[in-house]
Structures are given as C-alpha cells and as structure tokens.
Write a structure and sequence with these properties.
Layout: E1 2-5, H1 11-23, E2 27-32, E3 37-42, H2 51-54, E4 59-63, E5 83-85, E6 88-90, E7 96-100, H3 107-120, E8 124-126, H4 144-157, E9 161-164, H5 171-177, E10 180-183, H6 191-198, E11 203-207, H7 214-226, E12 232-236, H8 254-261, E13 266-268, H9 270-274, H10 277-290, E14 294-298, H11 316-335
Parallel strand pairs: 7-8, 7-14, 8-9, 9-10, 10-11, 11-12, 12-13, 13-14
Antiparallel strand pairs: 1-3, 1-4, 2-3, 5-6
Helix pairs in contact: 3-4, 3-11, 6-7, 10-11
The structure holds phosphoenolpyruvate and manganese (II) ion (MN).
Manganese (II) ion is lined by residues 102, 272, 298, 308-309.
Length: 344
C-alpha cells in the first residue's frame, strides 16, 4: 500500500505516520518527491487496513498495490529508477553497454578484452571469476585471482566491473572487487544469495532464470529490494522453450512487460539468449528497439579458444560495430520521438 502525504504535511506528521506503520509491525519505505512524500508500506501478506492511515493528520490518500511484488512495482514508484555505474547512468535513455568475456581466463585475455570494449564504447566490463557451470567438469573460473585481474582491468581502462557471485558466503569478497554483483540465471531463486546481495551497497544485476516467469523474476528482485538495496538491474537472458535452433529463446516480450510492471531498469543479454554469435547482433538491436535500457554481450579476442561460451562470443571488431548500431537505433527512436514506454 502507498500512503500519499499532503504537500502541506509537516515533518512531524510524516514521522507520526512512519511510527504508526512500524507500530503495526509493517515496514515503511519512504520516497521523498520534490513536492510530497510517499510512504510505501509492506507487510507479510496479511491484508493491510487503509483506515489505519487515512485518518492520520497529513495523509492525502492511501492506494493499495495490487501486485505481489511491492517495492519492485511501478505502482510503488512510477518514475524510472536510475542507477549510476561509474560515470554512466543506467535507465536514463542512453543504452547501457556491458561487454566482456564469459569468464576471466588469463591476464592477457582480460586486459585485451577490457581495452577493446572500452574503445568500442562500453560503459562496464563483464567477466566471470566464479562460474556456475552446468557440468562440474567444465572450467569453473579463476576465483579470487580472476577478481584481481578484473580490478587490474578496471585500473587500466576505468571501466566498472560486473561479475557473478554464486553463493552468499562469496558476497563480501566479490563486493570488494566489483561495482556490480551479477546473480545468474541458475541462482535467481537462491534466496539466501538474494538477501546477502540486498545487504550490500553494490548494484545487483539480476538475470532471469531460464524457466522463470516474469513474475518470478520480479519476486526475486523484491527479495533484494526488501533488504534495503534499491539498485537492481533486471536482465532478460532467454528462456527454455521447445525450440532447439538456439540455446534459449529470447523473450523480447519480457522487455515491454517489465518496463510496464517495474521501475527497475531492464537490459538484454543476447549472447545467452541465442547461444550463437551470428544471431547476437540482431537480438541486441531488437532489444533496444523494444525498449531495453541496455545490453550485456560476451566478447572474446579468440572465441574458438574460449574456455566458456566461445560459440556465442563476439570478436571485438563485431562488438564495436554492434555498439554503433545500438546507439544508432536509440538515436533514431529519440529523433522520431518514438517512446519505448509501453504505458505512453
Ligand atoms: C553468464 O553471464 O556468463 C552466465 C552464466 O549467464 P546466465 O546466468 O544468464 O546463464
Ligand atoms: Mn556465459
């Protein structure tokens, strides 16, 4: 439920409403607008009685939130959430470009890719140090040594780091090295991990589980938000369908659906959603046209020799071309005044 305060409400009236919310063992989340304050009230699923609040001094109105996810819903926060990564802002209309290898493999490899994606116009460098592989016999990542190499790549290029964290006990370590904690598809419903990431001050890039519904994804995001971390970026990365021509099926629908349902930024991973480098650029372009706030793309200097996901990795030259195309599409939408906001 949302408690909308009157524009004339005093600080004391606001404090009084916050105290009443807490008194009922509910959780208040304060949103300070330029004109008025709004308090989001989250409970434990039991119905919340609006009459508890509507009669309090300073309260203008009380609006129920119909969705099971509260803090993630657009009803709760109608504006787009903007999330700074380095000197770029995710969600403000300029496509966010994250590029880098599936996994950090060596010093030479990560430094070479970091320089290449920076030169191509990326805003952040991706690279897994802890890899959640489907097979226990596949390369599992370089661990902390990989994180150290990512930090070196950041020092070299200035690019913020996006890297995956695979278990709650690794959260402090990964948060020490990376600006953005990636939670992967296989861990989207690892609630202990979601809570641990929610307790950090790091941005979380939450990828959709391969068999998760959009609602499941938003409920997973809610776990992070409920811990007090408001900086969550959602990532569509393809879902399992009956189709076998591609590794997964890019659910382009999810982009406008998420943009309508949540204020959180939404990016597309066309690498995992297709599994083949030949299709990556087409899907990246369609994601931006559909209203994605950015893309995360796997890039490798020598995909044939990559230790993971070589088949879906772009070479740096093709990635550079893709960044130009994606920016051209975003500029064309702006020039034609085409809104990608599904609610407009
Ligand atoms: C990755 O980004 O390399 C990865 C493992 O992605 P996902 O969790 O989407 O499979
Ligand atoms: Mn990968």
């Amino acid at each position: 439920m949302m408690i909308i305060m009157k524009t004339s409400a005093s600080q004391e009236e606001l404090e009084n409403v916050l105290a009443s919310v807490k008194g009922l063992k509910l959780h208040p989340h304060r949103i300070s607008g330029s004109e008025r304050n709004v308090i989001g009230v989250v409970g434990d699923g039991r119905p919340i009685e609006p009459s508890n609040f509507i009669r309090l001094p300073g309260v203008a109105s009380v609006i129920p939130i119909s969705k099971p996810y509260k803090l993630a819903s657009r009803e709760f926060y109608p504006e787009n959430t903007l999330i700074p990564i380095g000197d770029h802002v995710v969600g403000n209309g300029t496509p966010t470009i994250i590029g880098g290898p599936c996994a950090v493999e060596s010093r030479d490899q990560i430094l070479e890719v970091a320089k290449a994606v920076k030169e191509a116009g990326a805003h952040a460098l991706r690279g897994g140090a802890f890899k959640p592989r489907t097979s226990p016999y596949s390369f599992q990542g370089m661990g902390e040594d990989g994180l150290k190499l990512l930090a070196e790549a950041r020092d070299l290029t200035g690019l913020p780091i996006v890297t995956e964290v695979t278990s709650p006990d690794l959260v402090p370590l990964v948060a020490d090295y990376a600006e953005v904690l990636q939670i992967g598809a296989r861990n989207m419903q690892n609630y202990a991990l979601l809570k641990a990431a929610g307790q950090t001050n790091r941005t979380v890039l939450l990828k959709r589980g391969m068999s998760a519904t959009i609602n499941d994804l938003l409920m997973a995001a809610e776990y992070i938000l409920a811990q007090g971390n408001q900086n969550v970026i959602l990532c569509e990365r393809g879902i399992r369908t009956f189709e076998t021509a591609t590794r997964n099926t890019t659910d382009i629908n999810a982009i406008p659906v998420l943009q309508a349902q949540t204020h959180l930024p939404v990016i597309l991973d066309p690498s995992h959603s297709t599994g083949h480098w030949e299709y990556v650029s087409a899907l990246a372009r369609s994601g931006i046209a559909a209203g994605a706030d950015g893309i995360i793309v796997e890039v490798h200097p020598d995909p044939a020799c990559a230790l993971s996901d070589g088949a879906q990795s772009l070479k740096p030259r093709r990635f550079k071309r893709l960044v130009k195309q994606v920016n051209a599409i975003a500029n064309a939408l702006k020039a034609e005044d085409i809104s990608t906001n599904p609610l407009q």
